[in-house]
C-alpha cells in the first residue's frame, strides 16, 4: 500500500493535535488546574464518540471485542491515554506550548525504538508469517534530521528558561512520547483489525475512565470545581485533539499497521504539530515570530519529512509498473 494517504492523514492529525498544546498552555496561564485539563478532555470525548459509533451501528461489535480481553484494554488504555495525556498537562504548567510541541517530537525516535517489541507480517513463498520487527535505521536517520530541525526551532527560546522548568517540562513529555505509541500499537494488536479508528478510540477512552475519575476526584478535593473557561477550552481540546486528531492518527496507523517502517513514517508526521503550534501561539497568545535560526529548523523538518517518506517506501512501490501489451485482434 502507498504511504502517501496515511502520511496525509497524519499531517491532518498533527494540525488538530496542536490545539492540545495551545489550549493547555492557555488554560494554565489563566489559572486552570492541570488535573482538570487532563480529565475533562476524556469526559467530553465519551459522548462525542458514543454518538459517532452508535450512528455507525458498531457499538455491539466494540463491546464484544472489549469483553474478550478486558484486562488488556484497561492496562494499555491507561498506558496509551493516561500516561500520555496526564504528563502533557502537567508539563504545560512549566513549559510554553511551543517548547512542549518541540519536545513531543521525541516520539519520532521513541516509536522507532519500540519496533523490536512488536511483530510484523512478511510475505514469503509459503505465505505470510509474523516476524519480530527491526529498528528502521534509515527512517531513524531521517527522524534525527527532523529532530535537529526541532532543536534549532526551539534553541533561542529554550535558553531563556530555568533548568528546573526545562526538566519539569521535558521529562513528563519524554514519558508521554513512549507511552502513546506503545499503547496505540498494543491495542492494534489486541483489536487485530476488527475495530475501526472510532471504535478503538472510544473503547480506549472508556477503559481509561477509572484513571480520569480518580484524577478529577483529587482535583475537586484539592482545588474545587473547574471554571467555565476551562470547561469550554477542555471541550474544544476533546473535540479537536481527542476526537479529530486521535481518530485521524489511529486511522493512518491502522492503514500501515503491518509495516513497521511505514508506521514510523506516519508517526513522524506528528513533527508538523510544532509548526501549527507556533502559528497558533503567534495568532492567539501573542508570541513573537520565529528567528532566522528557527526558520532554518522549519526547513529541516520539511526536508526530513520528505526523506522519511521516501526511505519508508517498500522496494515494490519504488519500481515502475510494466506497461501491458495492447490486445491483438
TrEMBL record:
Record keywords: Membrane, Transmembrane, Transmembrane helix
Parts of the chain that traverse the membrane: 7-23, 35-55, 75-95, 101-119, 139-155, 161-180, 201-221, 233-252, 264-286, 292-311
Keyword Chaperone recorded: no
InterPro entries: EmrE
Pfam families: EmrE
Tree of life domain: Bacteria
Record protein name field: Drug/metabolite transporter (DMT)-like permease
Amino acid at each position: 500500500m502507498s504511504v502517501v494517504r496515511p502520511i496525509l492523514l497524519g499531517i491532518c492529525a498533527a494540525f488538530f493535535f496542536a490545539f492540545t498544546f495551545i489550549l493547555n498552555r492557555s488554560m494554565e496561564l489563566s489559572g486552570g488546574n492541570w488535573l482538570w485539563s487532563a480529565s475533562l478532555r476524556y469526559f467530553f470525548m465519551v459522548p462525542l464518540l458514543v454518538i459517532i459509533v452508535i450512528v455507525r451501528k458498531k457499538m455491539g461489535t466494540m463491546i464484544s471485542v472489549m469483553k474478550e480481553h478486558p484486562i488488556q484494554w484497561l492496562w494499555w488504555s491507561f498506558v496509551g491515554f493516561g500516561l500520555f495525556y496526564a504528563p502533557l498537562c502537567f508539563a504545560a504548567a512549566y513549559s510554553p506550548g511551543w517548547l512542549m510541541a518541540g519536545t513531543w517530537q521525541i516520539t519520532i525516535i521513541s516509536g522507532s525504538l519500540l519496533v523490536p517489541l512488536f511483530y510484523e507480517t512478511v510475505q514469503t513463498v509459503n505465505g505470510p508469517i509474523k516476524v519480530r520487527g527491526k529498528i528502521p535505521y534509515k527512517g531513524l536517520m531521517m527522524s534525527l534530521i527532523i529532530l535537529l530541525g526541532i532543536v534549532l526551532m526551539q534553541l533561542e527560546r529554550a535558553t531563556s528558561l530555568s533548568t528546573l522548568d526545562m526538566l519539569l517540562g521535558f521529562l513528563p513529555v519524554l514519558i508521554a512520547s513512549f507511552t502513546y505509541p506503545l499503547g496505540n500499537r498494543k491495542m492494534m494488536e489486541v483489536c487485530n483489525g476488527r475495530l475501526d479508528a472510532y471504535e478503538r478510540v472510544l473503547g480506549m477512552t472508556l477503559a481509561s475512565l477509572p484513571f480520569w475519575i480518580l484524577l478529577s476526584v483529587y482535583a475537586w478535593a484539592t482545588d474545587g470545581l473547574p471554571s467555565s473557561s476551562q470547561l469550554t477550552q477542555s471541550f474544544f481540546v476533546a473535540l479537536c485533539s481527542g476526537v479529530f486528531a486521535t481518530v485521524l492518527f489511529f486511522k493512518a496507523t491502522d492503514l500501515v499497521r503491518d509495516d513497521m517502517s511505514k508506521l514510523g513514517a506516519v508517526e513522524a508526521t506528528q513533527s508538523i504539530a510544532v509548526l501549527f503550534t507556533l502559528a497558533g501561539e503567534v495568532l492567539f497568545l501573542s508570541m513573537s515570530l520565529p528567528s532566522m535560526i528557527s526558520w532554518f529548523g522549519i526547513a529541516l523538518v520539511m526536508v526530513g519529512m520528505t526523506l522519511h517518506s521516501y526511505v519508508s517506501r517498500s522496494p515494490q512501490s519504488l519500481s515502475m509498473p510494466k506497461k501491458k501489451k495492447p490486445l491483438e485482434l
